[in-house]
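Problem 12. The chain below contains 336 residues. Write out its predicted structure in token notation.
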Amino acid sequence: MTVVGPFGLSVRDQALEADVQTGLAAVEAGLLDATKSEVPFITEAAQHLVRAGGKRFRPLLVMLASQFGDPYAPGVVPSAVVVELTHLATLYHDDVMDEADVRRGVQSANSRWENSVAVLTGDFLFARASHILADLGPEAVRIQAEAFERLVTGQILETAGPRDGRDPVEHYLDVLSGKTGSLVAVSGRFGAMMAGASEGVVDILTQYGERLGVAFQLADDLLDIASESEESGKTPGTDLREGIATLPVLHLRAHAAKHGDPEDLALVERIDGDLSDDAVLAEVLAALRTHPAFEQARRDTVRYAEEARATLAPLPDGFAKAALGELCDAVVHRAG
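Solution.
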């Protein structure tokens, strides 16, 4: 059993390992090529996050999904470059919205330069992704456009918050389906579609990606609270400090409102207060880690990962299907 890719997936077959490693290497080269500009400063800004590394979760899914057709088909690697470029572009924009200082363990683009540079660099990446996408055909363009619409809608819904009477947890899970699930779903879809897999297989891997994408983001939410160091590539507690109510906090709020426990109400009040002091933030993080709301959010993460695994049942057995199943485990493992 060999671990491949920055995400750390276990692969049990040498041929599959070779295909995935070769594919990811080609994607990396494609990312560097796609982020080059005649203007050196644009190249520097566009490659800032590419060179910072990352899990390459979406390209990895493209490579595994392509195993259900011809993994060497010419559209596989470019489609993986497209989804990763799109993801990178959203990170530049997210960091501006969140006023983040760190991304992937390095200084964020908006912090290193300024907000306008970060926004325009994200736009540049979107443009380069669209250029590659145009060569993959009108159906690929339509699929990416629909996913991008969902992604932006999810971001807007997160900013707007739940409408009156809407369960905040349900609202948040819908947000994640759009913000994260949509592009991960496209990763599974592109990998299978570009490899010439059957329509049924393409649909299965699209559904799998949607559920796995939500589990992936929920695991990130947990990691933001549970990590003692900067395992997630950003400072632990960033979501709390930025006032982003992730699933553990939403479960805590619901628990406090239902039971009225004084300690829960006090913790909610601290979360809603000033968390600029590192010592105060550390105390809040410690309290959240041991609260039942955190375990409840972890169970939700496992549930989405298991739903993703269940969608794989109709696929033919083999090393690729097993690797997709282990990817579910790897996502959950990140959150403990």
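Discussion. The CA atoms of residues 99 and 110 lie 8 Å apart. Students who got a different answer should revisit the alignment rule from Section 12.3.
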